[in-house]
């Protein structure tokens, strides 16, 4: 299993386009970007190629983040904007040669029937559009502590969406940080949804630091389990860097048997 630097959360002391150099200096050869749209795709591609880094994942535009938007897929009042966001994601993914796009659900009541219908319609649209470009569409359950009111907040719900949309390129993005706070039972859920998971992300609970720090999750054990299930899973490093003990930010990967 290989690790991928999250350039939205790591190396934030420099502008986005300059973070490739810092990631490469650590040893990363893969990078994910939650929201790459602040920079032209051509600029990001140039820097990634300069430092030998391949893009493993981007998010589709999620609405105005500063105004509280956390995705558009479940928002029935934003269907046109959602379709435009998928077009934008396809444009960037193709230019960056990125084969995975995470589509965020947004804030809506899980019991809202119209939101559920809207979400299913939009995810099917997104998956079809991404499939036309040989791109995997990812949906990610997010815990209610980190994003209160997030529409997609359980793995059972995500599995229902996959079954109803029924497209082979639609997969679950399994973030151990969120999974631990949603339901725990990490080993059981990894095994249960192994055929539905298309990407992993990690951070220690509860402070969202690297897996090298102590916390609720025994990451050495989890990586051993995950490796036996699917050694080809990519591990996205979606965590905050430490100000107190920066040495633990990246050395954990080799120590736990992962590859850059």
TrEMBL record:
Record keywords: Isomerase
InterPro entries cross-referenced by the UniProt entry: HyI-like, Sugar_Epim/Isomerase, Xyl_isomerase-like_sf, Xyl_isomerase-like_TIM-brl
KW Isomerase (keyword) present: yes
EC category name: isomerase
GO MF, one example: hydroxypyruvate isomerase activity
Enzyme Commission number(s) of this protein: 5.3.1.22
Xylose isomerase-like TIM barrel domain mapped to chain residues: 21-248
GO BP annotation list: glyoxylate metabolic process
Active site positions: 140 (proton donor/acceptor), 238 (proton donor/acceptor)
Catalytic reaction annotation: 3-hydroxypyruvate = 2-hydroxy-3-oxopropanoate
Alphabetized Pfam families for the sequence: AP_endonuc_2
Signal peptide limits: none
Described function: Catalyzes the reversible isomerization between hydroxypyruvate and 2-hydroxy-3-oxopropanoate (also termed tartronate semialdehyde).
Family the entry assigns: Belongs to the hyi family.
Protein name: Putative hydroxypyruvate isomerase
Organism: Diploscapter pachys
High-level lineage: Eukaryota, Metazoa, Ecdysozoa, Nematoda, Chromadorea
């Amino acid at each position: 299993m290989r690790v991928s630097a999250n350039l939205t959360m790591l190396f934030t002391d420099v502008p986005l386009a300059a973070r490739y150099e810092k990631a490469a200096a650590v040893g990363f050869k893969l990078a994910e970007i939650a929201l790459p749209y602040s920079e032209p795709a051509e600029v990001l591609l140039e820097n990634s190629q300069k430092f030998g880094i391949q893009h493993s994942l981007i998010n589709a535009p999620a609405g105005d983040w500063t105004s509280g938007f956390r995705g558009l897929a479940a928002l029935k009042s934003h269907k046109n904007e959602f379709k435009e966001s998928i077009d934008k994601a396809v444009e960037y993914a193709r230019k960056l040669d990125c084969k995975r796009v995470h589509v965020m659900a947004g804030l809506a009541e899980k019991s809202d029937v119209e939101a559920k219908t809207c979400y299913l319609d939009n995810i099917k649209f997104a998956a079809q559009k991404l499939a036309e470009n040989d791109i995997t569409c990812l949906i990610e359950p997010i815990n209610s502590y980190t994003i209160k009111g997030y529409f997609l907040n359980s793995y059972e719900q995500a599995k229902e969406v996959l079954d109803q949309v029924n497209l082979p390129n639609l997969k679950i993005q399994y973030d151990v940080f969120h999974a631990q706070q949603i339901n725990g039972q990490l080993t059981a859920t990894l095994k249960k949804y192994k055929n539905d998971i298309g990407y992993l992300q990690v951070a220690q609970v509860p402070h969202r630091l690297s897996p090298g720090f102590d916390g609720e999750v025994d990451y050495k054990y989890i990586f051993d389990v995950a490796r036996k299930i699917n050694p080809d899973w990519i591990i996205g490093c979606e965590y905050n860097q430490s100000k107190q003990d920066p040495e633990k930010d990246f050395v954990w990967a080799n120590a736990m048997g992962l590859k850059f």
